[in-house]
TrEMBL record:
InterPro entries: ATPase_NBD (IPR043129), FtsA/MreB (IPR050696). It comes from Pirellula staleyi (strain ATCC 27377 / DSM 6068 / ICPB 4128) (Pirella staleyi). Residues 491-529 are annotated as: Disordered. Residues 506-529 have a biased composition (Low complexity). The keyword Magnesium does not apply. This is Fimbrial assembly family protein. It comes from the Bacteria. Residues 492-505 have a biased composition (Basic and acidic residues). Keywords: Membrane, Transmembrane, Transmembrane helix. The chain crosses the membrane at residues 324-345.
Length: 529
């Protein structure tokens, strides 16, 4: 696993930490404190000198191309407590910069600006702690890391980085002051739980006398508490934490407890992280490494917010919908291709069906042509059947209506079938020529035929003097239709039924044989005397 490097420098020294990311946080391997005091007695150190010192350490310890976190002090940035109006989360970054441009004194459009959210205000807006850094200072930091062959990943605000160490230890909502004593400065940060609310950096006296430093520090602490109390609506600090050790800071702890009448505890920052066996000895002033330890811990655990000037918060970039459009286009093309394949397959099936139906139609037409003559014959037969007359029944029925042989005699009879035409039904026609004894017989014959449904038309009676017995000659046209034939058939069936019933009644109904009486002699001979 690649190493993480955290660095910070001021006018007096360069502090460097090297560690590795573990499952539970960071593991510290090495810690270095390198003096930057020039030999000629100068009071400032150039960036090139810092880069040289750092490069020598990197080459010696094999730290080249390590991911690097840099802490910058409060004196290098401009910081304000801001309140924004209610707005969607994605618009908060723009609102913070807009508010900062109005309230910061030296903020330019090209200044990196980052912030941490402190919670919601009474009006529904958001309270933030915003910080901006000069582009020149950021470029100097980048140049130092580049010269030392380090990969710069983050530039954090020192007080916020130091507070990251308390993210797991103090998750309550108590109001505390965190003090980080550095060679020339002291970071005084007021926290609510692990969250930095009011950070302030003060200069320490040049004197090394602890009493003088403690007295100056007490005054600055009181001023900081008053300013924070005003910002927090009257809330007071109820505990003070000093990053340090008992060897160097016991006197400061005692003075603060006495002057402030508050609980004060010393906290070694290295006790809050995992330390590997590679760290042979602790730094002389472990409290000065609190910001570096906090940066590494926050980077590995991702438990607390931080201010990062290298990658400040900005309005979220709108999601790139190109992938969505590509997928949608691909889906549409897939659907179109599938539909085209289905259409091609369906058209192929329809072509096959059309071909099959065409062949079937052709065969049907051929069969129809072949069946035309039989159908015509069947039609003729059906037509004949409709107009067919059972002539024997018709003649039998007509003979029953004719006069006796003494009154009339038929000499010629012509029977003709009448085929149906349109709505006219079929039937039969009988043309009868004969002789009658008198004209009244002819009239009676016509009347009887009409009464039984025949259509009768005659040519009248003519006297025939040459006829030996019957003198009146006639010619009659009898037309009979299917409904008359049905009536004739029903009448004949009724007669046959009546005849059969009469025969049944005339037969004896004896169930046992009875001896017949002796026949008289006359009956035996078969005649009547």
């Amino acid at each position: 696993m690649s190493r993480l490097v955290a660095i910070e420098w001021d006018a007096k020294e360069l502090r460097v930490l090297a560690g590795r990311k573990r499952a539970r946080g960071v593991a510290i391997d090495r810690a270095w404190t390198i003096s930057l005091l020039p030999a000629d007695g100068a009071t400032t150190v150039s960036d090139s000198e810092v880069a040289t010192k750092l490069s020598e350490l990197v080459q010696k310890e094999g730290l080249a191309r390590s991911e690097t976190l840099v802490a910058v002090g409060r004196s290098s940035i401009e910081l304000r407590f801001l309140s924004t109006p209610p707005a969607p989360p994605e618009e908060l970054a723009d609102l913070v910069r807009f508010q900062a441009l109005r309230q910061f004194t030296t903020l330019g459009d090209d200044w990196p600006l980052d912030y941490i959210e402190l919670g919601k205000g009474t009006d529904g807006g958001t309270n933030v702690l915003a910080a901006a850094i000069s582009p020149e200072i950021l470029k100097q930091t980048q140049s130092v890391c580049q010269a030392a062959q380090l990969s710069l990943k983050r530039v954090a605000l020192r007080p916020v980085a130091a507070a990251n160490l308390l993210a797991k230890r103090h998750a309550d909502e108590r109001c505390r002051m965190l003090i980080d004593l550095l060679p020339s400065d002291a970071d005084l940060s007021v926290l609510i739980g692990p969250q930095v609310i009011f950070p302030r950096t003060v200069r320490l006296p040049a004197s090394l006398d602890p009493a003088i430093q403690s007295k100056s520090l007490v005054g600055e602490i009181r001023r900081t508490m008053i300013a924070a109390q005003n910002q927090l609506g009257g809330r007071r600090v109820d505990e003070v934490i000093i990053f340090g050790d008992g060897l160097h800071h016991a006197a400061v702890k005692g003075t603060l407890e006495k002057e402030l009448s508050l609980e004060v505890q010393l906290l070694d920052p290295f006790s809050l992280v995992e330390v590997t066996s590679e760290l042979k000895s602790m730094p002389e002033f472990p409290g000065t490494f609190a910001p570096l330890l906090g940066m590494l811990e926050g980077e590995c655990s991702q438990t607390a917010e931080t201010i990062d000037f290298l990658s400040p918060r900005k309005r979220p970039i709108p999601p790139n919908k190109r992938r969505v459009y590509v997928l949608a286009a691909a889906a549409i093309l897939s659907l179109v291709a599938s539909f085209a394949m289905f259409l091609y397959w369906e058209l192929g099936n329809l072509d096959t069906k059309i071909s099959s139906l065409s062949n079937e139609l052709r065969r049907t037409k051929d069969d129809a042509i072949k069946l035309k003559k039989p159908r015509e014959d069947v039609a003729q037969l059906e037509k004949f059947e409709v107009g067919d007359i059972t002539w024997l029944d018709a003649l039998d029925a007509l003979s029953r209506k004719m006069p006796s042989s003494k009154e009339a005699r038929v000499e010629e009879l012509v029977a003709t079938s009448i085929q149906p035409v349109g709505e006219r039904p079929g039937g039969g026609q009988l043309i009868v020529q004969g002789l009658a004894s008198e004209t009244g017989v002819i009239n009676r014959m016509e009347v009887q035929a009409r009464s039984h449904g025949y259509n009768v038309s005659g040519s009248g009676a003519k006297y025939d003097a040459e006829s030996p017995d019957l003198k009146w000659r006639f010619k009659e046209d009898f037309k009979i239709f299917p409904e008359q034939m049905e009536a004739i058939a029903a009448e004949r069936a009724a007669e046959e039924k009546a005849k059969a019933e009469k025969q049944e009644k005339s037969q004896p109904a004896a169930s046992t044989p009875v001896s017949a009486p002796a026949k008289p002699a006359a009956a035996a001979k078969g005649g009547v005397q």
